[in-house]
Every structure is written in structure tokens, then in C-alpha cells.
Amino acid sequence: MIIVGARPQFIKSAPVIRECLRTKQVDLQLINSGQHYDYELSQIFFNQLGLPKPVLNLQVGSGSHSSQTGRAMIRIERCILELRPEIVLVPGDTNTTLAAGLASAKLNLPVGHIEAGARSYDMSMPEEVNRIVTDHVSTMLFAPTKITERNLRSEGIARNRIFRVGDTMLDGLKTAIPLAKKQKPSLLGRMNLTAGEYVLMTAHRPANVDVQERLENIVNAILRISKSLKAVFPMHPRVAYRLKSYGLHRKLKLSRNVILTKPLDYIKMIALLDSAYALLTDSGGLQKEAFLLGTPCVTMRGTTEWPETLKSGANTLVGVDSDRIVRSILRSEKRHESIWDSKKTGNPFGSGRASEYIVRTVLSKTAQLSNET
Question: What does DSSP assign to residue 295?
């Protein structure tokens, strides 16, 4: 059973799901918790990533972290008792991840955590709480990098439960890049964009968008950047609501060089990211995708769970200080090639075969770990 519920999970899980469907020994049960229920953040990704229809949609919906996690746990428990899987795989660090991990562990069912061991060491981030707890109730921990593997070992997790497999987001990019390149000319044309002459940006973290002063700093930075470069801003529903409630949406809309859009599908985002001058974001996944594509990244946070991206200046942490954001964006320069153009080896996120390794490990280890659970 693979349990997903939010956009990042759909992207991280898609290659694993496809590998399961190709493997005769696997009978896959795909469950959607319904944590993201907007079409742009949910169904469109199932369609575009070629994912099968979930066996169940639990329709958890939104709410506070505790209420959302609690509803998800109750519904996931019922689902597990009904469908009786041999192992539950949970990707990432969302509330769905935590709920699925806890519900499975309390039923003495083996849990496999995809993207285990990522640490920002900032406990004010809900995602940090989710991933730490999920790691410590999991029986198989699929670490994407050497650093994440080291984090798990330092926390006392048994070595025989840790498997460094690479990052499934790299697997997904290998599939997405050819599709993105086909869409890119028409997409840039429709948006009146020139490759290398615009900044792609996203913001969605409550710590940034739910605090008026912080969101004002971000908006002021965008307006200053837009005097030199176009800015493309696909708006998460949370930030769209806050921009309007704080009276900031109109400021951005009046700028000729700021393009506001609804959330974009995965392939369009990869196409825009691949040709952007730089990325401005507070997303964890986009930091990795920018690194892999060779696009400079400026992250509106003080910490990152992906320190691998900080090497060689590919990613810069700036918080929400307007001056630092503007200075870092305008000074951005391409410091490394994308993994597809580069002749270098040793990409920290693996070889692009993480999904294959995960499924192979599940098949070979589930019986053994079931007895230990």
C-alpha cells in the first residue's frame, strides 16, 4: 500500500508506483488521503503523472495540523484493516506521511519511509516533526543521500533498516524533462517569456505567508526584482488568499513584469524552472529540482533539509529579508550544469534508479522485517 495526499507526494511517489505496476510480484493498493483536494494540487497530477485511480480517496481535507493528522489516522487505520496490506510505503514529510506511519505502526504493520533522514534541525517546521517521527516508527528507511543516511545512523536507527537508494524525484525528472522540453516553446510564447530572463517563484509555508510582515517583505522583494527581470508566480491557494486579505495582491497585479498564475501542473513547472534565470522559493522539493536542473536557487528560509544543494553556491538561504532576497537573485549565476548536461559523476541524489531499488528491497526484506515488527 502506498499512501499519498499532497502534491509533493504525488511527484515523489509516481516513479515508485510505476515500478510497482511493472513488477509482477507486487499487488499495489494506492490510497489518496485527500489532504490536497484542489484540482490543481491533486487530480491534475494523477492525470499528468499517469498514476492509476486510487483504490480509496479518504477526503481528509484541510484543517489545523492536529485535526488533519487525526482525521487521516482514523481513516487510514480503517483502510488498512479493510485492505490488509503486507507493508505501507509513505513518502515525504506531510501530515499524511505522519498519519500513515503512525496508523501502520500501531497496527504492527511494516512501514517504509521514502525520503527518510532529511533534517533541517528546525522544529518550528511541521515537516521536520513529521519526518523525525515517521523515521522512528518505520521499519524500512529509504535514504536518498549520504547525509540523510548519516542522520539516521546518528539517531540510533539500526543499520539493517536503512537503505540508501537515491532520490525518487530524480527518477521523476528523467521522465519529465523530455515532456517539458516539448512544451517549453509554446509555454514561454504564451506567457511572453524569454529563457534566462525571468525568475520563477513560489511561496506557501505558513511561517512566510500567514505573517503579514513577512509576506510584505516577499512582495516588496518581488516588485524590486521585477524592475530588472520578469517574475512568474504560480500561487498556492494559501498564498493567494493571504495576498488578497493583506491587500498585497493588487500591488503585484499592477506590475507589468509580474505574472500571477494559478498553480501549474508538474510538467509546466519543470519547463519554466529549466529555463529560469533563477528560482525564488520556500519549497523543499523545488530546491532539489533546481539543483538537478542547474538553475540557481534562492530559498526564503533560514535552514534547509537538503544541505547537498548548498554546495558550490547552487542554493542560497536568505530568510525573508527583502534586501537579501533581491541581492541574491540579481547576483545569481549558473554555477553548475544540469545533471543531464554535465560530464561529472557523483550526483548526491543518486543515479535515477531509486524506485527500482525501493521495490527490489521491499520484495526481499518485507518478510524478514514483518517478523521483527
Answer: -
